[in-house]
């Protein structure tokens, strides 16, 4: 584990001491080394238990895919951010890379920690670099408002979780995930305790109704902030819900029905909101709310199929949504507008980029045999087994998702070129490499889907 974490720790001093020319290449090289070394976790992954990495750190079949996704995303964020930061002062570029590195370090500790208090601390610590990235490198004046929303939604919802964890530790004297089943009988089981443990993660997902911070944060964040938010930070919520389910009682019908109903209603409502969006980044952000509603529904069924489908969809959505934000950023860098109707007709100028748009649009609407389809279908089946009426909302949500995904592609790529577009920079090799590095893991998951299959005992 230290062999993997040491390059991460070394990145911070390196980015402050190196020259600007060496800055990006060294950061990118180290991040690719970390991403390659993280694949070792797949070899050590045990289907029956934990693989220890240290005194308070371990991996299992749930945390390993999310850890690898976290490590894989850092080099992609560095590649995507180069054009955005090339006019920035040298010290701001170093600070930016250091914050990305620090965020990756906190995420690795969060996903690999076995002590729940340590997980809570790392869960909250990810807020600090994210807040700096949004408020200091956002494009619009609304970035301060977006940072305020992010801060207060996250902190207020996580305070009940802290109280619940302290109470559980007082009752049991130990709070380790590896020994949690042995202390289950000592933990007081109550609906309020369940709600306190899960509320922070429901807001982080986010559940429809407490999602207002997400579109604001996505729209105002720079490209790296949008990528890490969509790909990893939202998945902390699903990961936390799955972990806490081993400590508290199974969800009663009184709690499950309103939360599942709200999640399913959110799938339909956010899909309809996407259909009327003019802002490209806002459309992709609301799309994430709809997909995470499906994940919440799958977890709430508390079945093996629901948990497995939720994990598959989280990984697949992380790669797909991150790629869509990268594509939206390439459009913005050339047209200087996020309004879809002002950036139409780009297929005639950038046919290869239009091919990437088409590929990830199909991934977003869950085209077979991509893992997005595997995750959604597994969740839909588990929810239909839980209650037949869920098929009305999941089926409607699937149709609306296909509608707004195709609307997004047709609006941005087809039609006549906007009259205000006079000259556009050509696409670069690094942009196509960035898209390829998003697509390759999705294709690999088609070949080996068991890597991200989670069957809880």
Automatic annotation (TrEMBL):
TM annotation in the entry: 53-74, 95-111, 117-137, 149-168, 192-214, 221-240, 255-275, 282-301, 307-327, 348-366, 386-406, 433-455
Membrane-protein topology: Multi-pass membrane protein
Signal peptide extent: none
Limits of the NADH:ubiquinone oxidoreductase chain 4 N-terminal domain: 1-110
Pfam families hit by this protein: Oxidored_q5_N, Proton_antipo_M
All residue ranges annotated as the NADH:quinone oxidoreductase/Mrp antiporter transmembrane domain in the record: 113-400
Gene Ontology MF terms in the entry: NADH dehydrogenase (ubiquinone) activity; NADH dehydrogenase activity; ubiquinone binding
Database matches in InterPro entries: NADH4_N, NADH_Q_OxRdtase_chainM/4, NADH_UbQ_OxRdtase, ND/Mrp_TM
Reaction catalysis annotation: a ubiquinone + NADH + 5 H(+)(in) = a ubiquinol + NAD(+) + 4 H(+)(out)
Record flagged with keyword Cell membrane: no
Family, similarity comment: Belongs to the complex I subunit 4 family.
Official protein name in the record: NADH-ubiquinone oxidoreductase chain 4
């Amino acid at each position: 584990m230290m062999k993997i974490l040491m390059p991460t720790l070394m990145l911070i001093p390196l980015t402050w001491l190196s020259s600007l020319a060496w800055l990006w290449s060294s950061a990118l090289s180290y991040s690719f080394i970390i991403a390659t070394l993280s694949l070792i976790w797949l070899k050590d992954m045990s289907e029956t238990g934990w693989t220890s990495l240290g005194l308070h750190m371990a991996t299992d079949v749930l945390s390993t895919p999310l850890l690898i996704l976290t490590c894989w995303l850092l080099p992609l964020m560095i590649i995507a951010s180069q054009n955005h930061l090339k006019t920035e002062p040298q010290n701001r570029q170093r600070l930016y890379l250091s914050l990305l590195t620090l965020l990756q370090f906190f995420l690795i500790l969060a996903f690999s920690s076995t002590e729940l208090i340590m997980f809570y601390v790392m869960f909250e610590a990810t807020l600090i670099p994210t807040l700096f990235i949004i408020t200091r490198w956002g494009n619009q004046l609304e970035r301060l408002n977006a940072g305020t929303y992010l801060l207060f939604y996250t902190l207020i919802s996580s305070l009940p979780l802290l109280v619940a964890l302290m109470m559980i530790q007082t009752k049991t004297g130990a709070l380790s995930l590896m020994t949690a089943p042995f202390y289950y009988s000592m933990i007081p089981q109550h609906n309020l305790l369940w709600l306190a443990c899960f509320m922070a993660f429901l807001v982080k997902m986010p559940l429809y109704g407490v999602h207002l911070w997400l579109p604001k944060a996505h729209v105002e964040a720079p490209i790296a902030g949008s990528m890490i938010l969509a790909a990893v930070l939202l998945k902390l919520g699903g990961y936390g819900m799955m972990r806490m389910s081993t400590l508290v009682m199974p969800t009663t019908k009184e709690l499950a029905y309103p939360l599942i109903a709200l999640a399913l209603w959110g799938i339909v409502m956010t899909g309809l909101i996407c259909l009327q969006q003019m802002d490209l980044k806002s459309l992709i952000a609301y799309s994430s709310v709809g997909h995470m509603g499906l994940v919440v529904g799958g977890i709430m069924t508390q079945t093996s199929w629901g948990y497995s489908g939720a994990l598959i969809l989280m990984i697949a959505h992380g790669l797909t949504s991150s790629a869509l934000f990268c594509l939206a950023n390439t459009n913005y860098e050339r047209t200087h507008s996020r309004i879809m109707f002002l950036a139409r007709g780009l297929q005639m100028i950038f046919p290869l980029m239009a091919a990437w748009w088409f590929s990830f649009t199909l991934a977003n609407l869950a085209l077979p045999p991509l893992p997005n389809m595997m995750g959604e279908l597994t969740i839909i089946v588990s929810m239909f087994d839980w209650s037949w009426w869920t098929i009305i909302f999941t089926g409607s949500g699937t149709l609306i998702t296909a509608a707004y995904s195709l609307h997004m592609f047709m609006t941005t790529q087809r039609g006549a070129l906007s009259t205000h577009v006079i000259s556009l920079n050509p696409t670069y090799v690094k942009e196509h490499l960035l898209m390829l590095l998003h697509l390759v893991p999705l294709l690999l998951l088609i070949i080996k889907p068991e890597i991200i299959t989670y069957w809880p005992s």
